[in-house]
């Protein structure tokens, strides 16, 4: 070739030459070809080998093998592997072409085709083959001239097969990409003909028109190719053009139609290309279009607008009466909104002209993300949009105004100045473009009133509760005029952790937030969001998912190449399948992040072994060295060095999620119910990879647990253990599992035995490929893959694995799927049926097989059910039949045996036997053995139902009943069998609405049989007791009929009168069913009511009797007894003698045993006359209704409900239960017993189940709020009493159990609301803790300016206030100004009110409960009475103002008289002040209103004069008391600390006086409470200020660890020695007395008199460092003071003395520093400090604190760890 190379050059060349792929061992040739789907006969294989160049090792290159196969044209191809074969042959094919090819192939039942036939059909689809050596001639034949570079590029990019050939269709695709090719204008027809386009003369002329032709009569290919689209596709009839356009939404008149036709190239058949017509319309001056269909019309015309652009066009239109707009106006507006077209070739200079600088890498990424048209242009506005959303580029701050103007952003001078001053500028005066635009965004969009935030967000589709709104407003920068920038609001809402979105408005929401997603992307996002039944989704979930729609976009046709570059290989089928799941936009692009995200759940694909780390990095998996090594051990690498993608994903998922310390694994596992010995734990740790910090991923740990199989599992926590091991068992399956486990005396089971049992329940775990093979072997693969119902029912994990039995369960009762009878045997085997030949033939004979030899799968399963269950020996058949009441004559017996499929051992299935019995005529059943017969058939009837059957069925003289007649009657009782999958539809057909979540709950309550069916009667019974679902009020009558209730018109009317109806005219199903049950059972004569009740022991007065007669729904002179008793219950004072209890219970249809009756008596308080309250009897008796549970299975029952009891509580519970001799107890009575216990816990994940069992229905939003109140991360249970109190608060009923609050609120701290203070009884009222100190987790705090004077006593004030019945006001206030009136109106609006807008008793109760205040109904009634000035029974706004402005009431509320208790009993009339104080405290009112109210009462307090004594004690509602003397020693440390803290609102001189008094009274003690080091850390401002961040410190620490730590964070979180750090701050220059940073600033200021932006930036950095140094120093000093204080006050003993370790959290909260925006001391700091103090304090110090130290206190230090103590030893 005339090329001379040196030896080194030759070596380099050979190393870089591309070889023909991998080598194949010819000894394994048959296997290799088989994997590709090719089957060769032995002689064909020999012929192939003869043509192959096999080397000395007996190997051949794979590409050479494929070339030989193709030229041989022998062998058979498996169509199922056709895509893989084509790929290996080097033939690229689209999905449409592949489908066309498979349709052309001959239909073969085994899906096989000859290779030569396949090659022939390929040519028909893709055109003839062109040899690459003939490519130049082929181009000349088409009239195409290309440059040498373009020719090389074309050859390089063409998909050549193994023979170096390319199909013509692929060649033409390649030609379209040529950039500089030319074609002779006179040869255009040749080119088009080669491309399969035949044009008429007129069409060709139109095609050529306006093409730019050069002097040589040539035209550029890039100008020709875009026009080809107009002359492809379907044609439309030009004669019917008006109607064609009308169907497209375009209206033209006759004249316009003629004008348009003149512009179009109509062929000889009077037809025109549809695409050409649409192109012509773009420049047409006539026509109108339907504005409502604009997007579709523009899409048909090839114009794709973004949502923002489309809205802009629509808003600019003037619509006529028919909702039409001129087409030309629309097209002009489209051009205006997209801007002028710019050539991409000039893009770099255009960007430079804008004033934006990009690095080469940024420039390429930007271009890739831009929406460039086919002709290489982009519209100006889309370029600007692309630049604005791009995360790159820099701009010169000095040229800011021009840059913004170029980007069409106009800002006023003031905002421009603010912007330039606040931008972060580098040394060269440049700033990042995206930071600039982020700041600019704040100034655009305008401002909105803070009070309108909820409405503004609601309008775009974001819903917030009032509580969420308050939390949001606290993080918003609200200006002095009460406004906030709209874009700042939208920016903050992106990271806001609460709120919900309407799924249908996702597009609008994201557009307002600045995300520009196209319709396909929005639809994809909506499909993947976890929505509720109300089609709503949590806002934070939207924000998480939308992240994958950011970053770089790629062309969809490049997906395969991009994946190969990172190491992922897909077959063509897999590639097409993946593309279908991606949101590809109209310009053929998809976000790279979305692609990678979708790959994590994609089933298919392989990974190259040598690129594994690259793939993991791209998918955001970060693994350490040891973890990477461990990952390799989990992967199965094939002989080609590839790994299944989903297998890799599954293994990688083990290295995601949370991590735990190796030393904590034993504790962690124990918490989830898995218990290891120390040795077992060490063995386990040896199996897992630990990172450098000795931590391990939880998922990886649990995977090792399953592999290790050692240890034991606590059966009471078995569901936690299974869930953490990611074993998907339903509750029913867990229950069944527990029944058969070998549990020891401590209720533990070996993990190994548990996992074995799980394998039996779930079957083996199978891969995606394997379950496809299983379905294929069963003959169902293709059908089921297309069945969306089936595919959705499969619970695949991330790697596409599932348990075999779960797969098979999905097949049961699946409608519409047909099975070939030839595949019946493998199908039954896979479904778990073990049939012998006789049984198999019997099954086949009984199936309804159609003419094609197919049968429905659900029919097969129904018949197959007969071959399950018990078998009996046919030798004992006679005895068996006699036992169930059947006697057969000898001939009948023989006939029966002949028809039964008897196995080799002479046995037959009982189910099959029972079916055959029904087929025999004249078979009878003995009536006294009917129950035994029913059990044999699997029908569970109650005793009453069996008796009812006997009463209705004709019995012959021998006491026998006809079998078939009996079974028909049984069917009437049970109803037909309903597939479990049809339950939701069946219930909805009854008129009952249930959500998907409720449907799942309902199914769990139903007795579903082994064949996945349920009797209709059992469904109805389940519906009647189901706690869920709703009914339309107008459908009540039909629903009652459908559920078996038969009510008269008057009864229905009475029922409707008493039902609570929602705003949407709906009634809760359970309320309806409970009310309807009163209209069942026995009826009594209405004129005999008095006697009927008297016989039960209930006496009525004449008045009561008359009232009952008027209120009861009497029909035909009768009334239901249940309804009568329900009506008696509201009558006050009704009592019944204990001797009549049994009669009363019987009439209530409550059956109680001896034990239960005694238990009931024990709970009923009887008076001296042995009389008990009727209401109490009825309430207590409810415990003996409903379902019964077995005491022997009590642990499982409690576990299922989510309850966790200690052994002690379990034993205590058993002692209190009235257990029947049958070993059962009523579930309601069990729950009542559980409520009485102090220690039960509830599993958080089963909280809803628990509440349902307790009869509490909780809405989804209530459940979310409840979850937010629960313990922080890591806790799995919550105290039952705390939970019930929180539920009461959320439900707003105000019912709090006093004892539970006293005991429980120490542990339970609701988030976002004030912690309820500890309530005291009368005996310990003097020791009460201050209310404000108990509020430790308020999100925002109020700080009042200190009072100017300490008031003196005013002992004789307002004596007659409580004495007057009407509580008339004796003191009036001067009129409020407008601002004050508006503020009090805001406060008044917070209250719940009646329809007249006044506060009634119910409204006041609800308001009190909502604020977490604990009052009795009596207290609330008295308060309402005192506040009701005009005596109309309600508090209107006038009353409200008069009460709150009255001086005497105000003084009673804030300064009590000496020795007067400040609870309601001793000081009524102050509730409104308490509520107002709470509203201010929790920032429930607008900021301005709070300022006005606080200012008003400050002035009022200061104006009260010297006749009032100031008390430093709390104002907490219902828990205040006045100490008679300031010197009275506090009885507890908590009380002392709280009292001292209360003085924070005093002025400094008053503070000193108070402290001096404290010192005088406690001169011999070292009381630390005289020093208040906390409050100077709070800013001294009126109004509301931001409080402690509402985030768990643990979560904050984890978050910060992922980010680089700065100096203070390093010291704070990693507990570095703070004193050493403080010493290392060399901030003061001894000579000058100033910090180095300040000196630097001073020198810089002296140097210059004029400053540039860069100078200002440099100074700014020094100022920041100086400020940070100062703040750090302040923080360290405060930390030192706080630790000294803590040491003095013996903080650990304070917490122990009050039996409340939450004091650590309280103290930590009050160490909050505004300088560093976090606590100076965490609770952990304090506990560690206490450990050191306890261990090192002297005997003397211990004895001095002996009054405060309990026995457990002295041992506290010994239980602490030593870690971290050194920092406190100074």
Task: Describe the fold and architecture.
- The C terminus is likely disordered.
- The radius of gyration is 42 Å and the shape is globular.
- It starts with 6 loop residues before the first helix and ends in a 16-residue tail after the last helix.
- Helix 6 crosses helix 7 and helix 39 crosses helix 40.
- The chain has 1770 residues and is mostly helical.
- Strand 60 and strand 61 form a beta hairpin.
- It has 95 helices and 61 strands.
Briefly summarize what is shown.
By secondary structure, the chain is mainly alpha-helical. 49% of the residues lie in helices and 10% in strands. Helix 6 crosses helix 7 (115-126), helix 18 (307-315) crosses helix 19 (327-338) and helix 39 packs across helix 40 (698-708).
């Amino acid at each position: 070739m005339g090329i001379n190379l040196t030896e080194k050059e030759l070596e380099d060349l050979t190393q870089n030459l591309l070889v023909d792929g991998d080598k194949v061992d010819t000894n394994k040739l048959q296997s290799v070809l088989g994997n590709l789907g090719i089957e060769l006969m032995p002689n064909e294989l020999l012929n192939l080998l003869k043509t192959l160049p096999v080397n000395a090792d007996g190997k051949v290159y794979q590409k050479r093998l494929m070339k030989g196969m193709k030229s041989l044209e022998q062998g058979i191809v498996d169509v199922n592997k056709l895509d893989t074969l084509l790929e290996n042959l080097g033939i690229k094919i689209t999905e449409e072409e592949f489908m066309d090819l498979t349709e052309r192939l001959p239909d073969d039942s085994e899906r096989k085709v000859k290779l030569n036939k396949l090659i022939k059909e390929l040519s028909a689809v893709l055109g003839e083959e062109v040899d690459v050596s003939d490519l130049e001639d082929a181009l000349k034949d088409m009239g195409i001239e290309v440059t040498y570079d373009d020719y090389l590029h074309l050859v390089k990019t063409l998909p050549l097969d193994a023979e170096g050939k390319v199909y013509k269709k692929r060649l033409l695709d390649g030609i379209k990409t040529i950039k500089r090719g030319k074609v002779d204008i006179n040869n255009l027809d040749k080119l088009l003909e080669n491309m399969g386009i035949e044009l008429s003369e007129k069409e060709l002329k139109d095609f050529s028109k306006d093409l730019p032709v050069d002097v040589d009569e040539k035209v550029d290919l890039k100008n020709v190719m875009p026009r080809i689209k107009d002359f492809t596709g379907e044609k439309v009839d030009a004669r019917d053009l008006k109607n064609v356009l009308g169907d497209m939404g375009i209206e033209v008149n006759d004249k316009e139609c003629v004008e348009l036709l003149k512009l179009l190239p109509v062929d000889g058949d009077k037809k025109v290309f549809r695409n050409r017509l649409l192109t012509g319309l773009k420049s047409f001056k006539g026509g109108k279009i339907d504005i409502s269909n604009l997007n579709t019309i523009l899409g048909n015309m090839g114009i794709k607008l973004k949502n923002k652009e489309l809205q802009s066009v629509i808003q600019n239109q003037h619509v006529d009466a028919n909702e039409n707009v001129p087409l030309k106006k629309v097209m002009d507006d489209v051009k205006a909104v997209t801007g002028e077209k710019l050539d991409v070739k000039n893009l770099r200079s255009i960007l430079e002209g804008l004033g934006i600088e990009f690095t080469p890498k940024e420039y390429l990424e930007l271009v890739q993300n831009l929406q460039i048209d086919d002709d290489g242009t982009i519209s100006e506005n889309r370029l600007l949009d692309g630049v604005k959303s791009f995360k790159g580029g820099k701009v010169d701050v000095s040229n800011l105004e021009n840059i913004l103007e170029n980007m069409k952003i106009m800002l006023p001078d003031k905002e421009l100045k603010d912007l330039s001053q606040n931008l972060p500028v580098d040394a060269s005066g440049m700033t990042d473009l995206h930071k600039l635009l982020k700041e600019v965004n704040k100034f655009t969009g305008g401002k909105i009133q803070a009070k309108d935030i909820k409405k503004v967000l609601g309008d775009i589709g974001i819903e917030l509760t009032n509580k969420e709104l308050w939390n949001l407003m606290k993080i918003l920068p609200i200006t002095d005029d009460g406004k906030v920038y709209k874009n700042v609001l939208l920016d903050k809402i992106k990271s806001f952790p609460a709120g919900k979105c309407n799924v249908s408005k996702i597009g609008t929401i994201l557009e307002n937030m600045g995300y520009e997603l196209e319709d396909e992307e929005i639809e994809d996002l909506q499909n993947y969001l976890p929505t509720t039944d109300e089609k709503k989704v949590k806002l934070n979930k939207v924000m998480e998912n939308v992240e994958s729609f950011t970053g770089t976009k790629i062309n969809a046709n490049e997906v395969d190449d991009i994946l190969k570059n990172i190491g992922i290989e897909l077959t063509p089928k897999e590639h097409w399948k993946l593309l279908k799941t991606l949101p590809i936009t109209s310009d053929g692009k998809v976000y790279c992040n979305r692609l990678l995200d979708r790959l994590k759940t994609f089933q298919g694909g392989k990974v190259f072994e040598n690129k594994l780390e690259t793939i993991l990095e791209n998918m955001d998996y970060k693994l350490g060295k040891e973890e990477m090594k461990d990952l390799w051990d989990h992967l199965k690498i094939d002989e080609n060095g590839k790994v299944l993608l989903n297998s890799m994903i599954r293994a990688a998922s083990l290295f995601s999620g949370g991590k735990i310390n190796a030393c904590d694994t034993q504790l962690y596992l124990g918490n989830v119910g898995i218990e290891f010995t120390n040795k077992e734990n060490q063995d386990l740790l040896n199996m897992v990879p630990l990172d450098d910090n000795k931590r391990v991923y939880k998922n990886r740990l649990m995977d090792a647990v399953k592999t290790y199989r050692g240890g034991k599992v606590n059966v009471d926590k078995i569901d936690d253990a299974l869930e953490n091991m990611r074993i998907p068992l339903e509750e029913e399956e867990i229950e069944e599992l527990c029944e058969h486990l070998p549990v020891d005396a401590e209720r533990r089971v070996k993990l190994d035995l548990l996992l074995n049992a799980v394998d039996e329940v779930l079957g083996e775990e199978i891969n995606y490929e394997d379950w496809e093979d299983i379905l294929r072997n069963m003959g169902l693969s293709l059908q089921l893959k297309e069945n969306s119902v089936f595919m959705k029912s499969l619970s695949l994990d991330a790697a596409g694995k599932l348990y075999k039995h779960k797969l098979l369960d999905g097949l049961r009762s699946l409608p519409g799927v047909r099975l070939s009878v030839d595949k019946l045997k493998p199908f039954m085997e896979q479904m778990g049926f073990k049939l012998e030949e006789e049984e198999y033939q019997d099954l086949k004979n009984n199936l309804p097989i159609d003419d094609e030899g197919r049968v429905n799968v659900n029919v097969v399963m129904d018949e197959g059910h007969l071959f399950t269950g018990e078998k009996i020996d046919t030798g004992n058949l006679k005895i068996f039949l006699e036992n169930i009441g059947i006697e057969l004559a000898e001939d009948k017996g023989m006939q029966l045996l002949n028809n039964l499929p008897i196995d080799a051992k002479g046995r037959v299935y009982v189910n099959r036997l029972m079916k055959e019995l029904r087929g025999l005529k004249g078979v009878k059943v003995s009536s006294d053995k009917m129950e035994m017969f029913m059990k044999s058939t699997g029908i569970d009837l109650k005793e009453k139902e069996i008796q009812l059957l006997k009463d209705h069925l004709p019995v012959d003289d021998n006491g026998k009943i006809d079998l078939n007649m009996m079974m028909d009657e049984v069917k009437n009782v049970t109803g037909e069998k309903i597939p479990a999958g049809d339950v939701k539809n069946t219930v909805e057909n009854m008129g009952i609405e249930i959500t998907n979540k409720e449907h799942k709950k309902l199914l769990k309550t139903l007795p579903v049989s082994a064949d996945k069916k349920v009797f209709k009667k059992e469904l109805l019974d389940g519906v009647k007791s189901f706690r869920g679902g709703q009914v339309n009020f107008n459908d009540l009558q039909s629903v009652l009929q459908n559920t078996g209730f038969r009510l008269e018109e008057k009864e229905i009317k009475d029922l409707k009168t008493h039902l609570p109806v929602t705003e949407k005219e709906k009634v809760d199903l359970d309320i309806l069913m409970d009310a309807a049950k009163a209209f069942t059972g026995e009826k009594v004569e209405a004129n005999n009511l008095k006697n009927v009740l008297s016989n039960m022991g209930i006496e009525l007065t004449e008045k009561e009797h008359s009232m009952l007669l008027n209120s009861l729904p009497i029909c035909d002179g009768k009334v239901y007894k249940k309804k009568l008793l329900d009506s008696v219950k509201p009558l006050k004072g009704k009592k019944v003698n204990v001797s009549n209890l049994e009669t009363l219970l019987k009439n209530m249809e409550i059956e109680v045993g001896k034990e239960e009756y005694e238990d009931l008596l024990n709970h009923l308080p009887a008076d001296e006359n042995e009389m008990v309250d009727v209401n109490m009897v009825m309430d207590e008796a409810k415990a003996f209704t409903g379902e019964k549970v077995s005491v022997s299975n009590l642990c499982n029952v409690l576990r299922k409900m989510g309850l966790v009891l200690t052994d002690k509580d379990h034993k205590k519970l058993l002692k209190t239960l009235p257990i029947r001799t049958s070993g059962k107890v009523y579930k309601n009575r069990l729950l009542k017993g559980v409520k009485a216990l102090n220690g039960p816990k509830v599993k958080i994940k089963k909280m809803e189940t628990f509440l349902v069992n307790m009869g509490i229905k909780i809405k989804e939003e209530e459940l979310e709020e409840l979850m937010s109140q629960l313990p922080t991360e890591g806790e799995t249970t919550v105290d039952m009493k705390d939970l019930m109190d929180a539920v009461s608060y959320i439900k707003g009923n105000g019912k709090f159990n006093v004892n539970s609050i006293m005991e429980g609120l120490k542990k339970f701290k609701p988030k976002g609301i004030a912690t309820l203070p500890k309530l005291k009884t009368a005996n310990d009222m003097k020791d009460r803790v201050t209310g404000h100190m108990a509020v430790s987790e308020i999100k925002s705090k109020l700080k009042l300016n200190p009072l100017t004077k300490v008031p003196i006593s005013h002992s004789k004030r307002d004596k007659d206030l409580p004495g007057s019945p009407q509580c008339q006001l004796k003191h009036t206030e001067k009129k409020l100004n407008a601002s004050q009136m508006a503020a009090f109106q805001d406060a008044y609006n917070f209250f719940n009110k009646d329809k007249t807008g006044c506060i009634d008793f119910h409204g006041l109760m609800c308001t009190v409960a909502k604020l977490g205040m604990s009052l009795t109904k009596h207290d609330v009634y008295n308060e309402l009475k005192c506040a009701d000035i005009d005596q109309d029974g309600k508090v209107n706004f006038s009353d409200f103002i008069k009460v709150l402005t009255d001086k005497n009431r105000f003084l009673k509320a804030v300064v009590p008289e000496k020795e007067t208790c400040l609870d309601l009993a001793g000081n009524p009339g102050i509730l409104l002040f308490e509520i107002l104080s709470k509203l201010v405290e929790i920032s429930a009112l607008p900021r301005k209103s709070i300022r006005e109210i606080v200012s008003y009462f400050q002035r009022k307090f200061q104006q009260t004069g010297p006749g009032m004594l100031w008390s430093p004690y709390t104002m907490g509602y219902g828990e205040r008391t006045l100490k008679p003397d300031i010197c009275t020693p506090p009885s507890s440390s908590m009380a002392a600390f709280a009292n001292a803290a209360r003085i924070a609102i005093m002025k400094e001189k008053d503070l000193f006086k108070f402290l001096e008094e404290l010192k005088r009274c406690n001169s011999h003690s070292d009381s630390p409470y005289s020093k208040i080091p906390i409050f100077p850390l709070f800013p001294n401002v009126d109004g509301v200020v931001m409080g402690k961040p509402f985030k768990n410190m643990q979560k904050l620490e984890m978050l910060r660890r992922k980010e680089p730590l700065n100096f203070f964070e390093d010291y704070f979180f990693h507990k570095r020695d703070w004193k050493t750090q403080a010493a290392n701050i060399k901030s003061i220059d001894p000579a000058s007395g100033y910090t180095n940073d300040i000196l630097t600033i001073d020198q810089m200021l002296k140097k210059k008199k004029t400053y540039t932006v860069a100078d200002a930036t440099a100074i700014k950095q020094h100022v920041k460092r100086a400020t940070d140094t100062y703040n750090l120093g302040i923080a360290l000093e405060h930390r030192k003071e706080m630790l000294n204080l803590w040491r003095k006050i013996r903080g650990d003993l304070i917490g122990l003395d009050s039996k409340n370790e939450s004091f650590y959290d309280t103290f930590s909260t009050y160490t909050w520093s505004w300088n560093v925006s976090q606590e100076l001391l965490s609770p952990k700091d304090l506990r560690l400090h206490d450990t050191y103090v306890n261990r090192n304090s002297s005997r003397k110090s211990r004895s001095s604190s002996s009054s405060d130290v309990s026995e457990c206190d002295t041992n506290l230090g010994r239980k602490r760890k030593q870690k971290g103590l050194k920092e406190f030893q100074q």
